[in-house]
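Hello support,

Our group uses your service weekly, and this is the first time we've seen a run hang past the timeout. The protein is Thioredoxin. I'm not sure whether the cause is the sequence or the server load. Input pasted verbatim:
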Amino acid sequence: MATVELTDSTFEQAIKDNDIVLVDFWASWCGPCRQFAPVYEASSEEHPDVVHGKLDTEAQQQIAAAAGISAIPTLMAFREGIMVFNQAGALPAPALKQVVDAVKDLDMDDVRAQIAAAENGQQQN
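Update from on-call engineer: The timeout came from a worker crash unrelated to the input. Re-ran successfully.
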């Protein structure tokens, strides 16, 4: 599966409609973004069960701002609509594979329990 171009209007639906979504926040003027692009594209071919979205931060400024993107490239991973990974910087292929495998291996019941516990702790303070 090739990478999918995400926009301000398609970003949220892509996260909702797919089990695992990686999002590469990039810009055409960014050298590290251009270096990461073929690594990301190869990952999309290796993991057809994972949506590999690309969001051009120059063209899609609303989502980039809402996501708090302050450096590019930034990679975010969503599983079942929950952001489970967020890191700036271009990853080498082995590190990207580790991220994909780790996201696939997550126990989402445990993740939701941790989120609920954190929210309950914040409400008590």
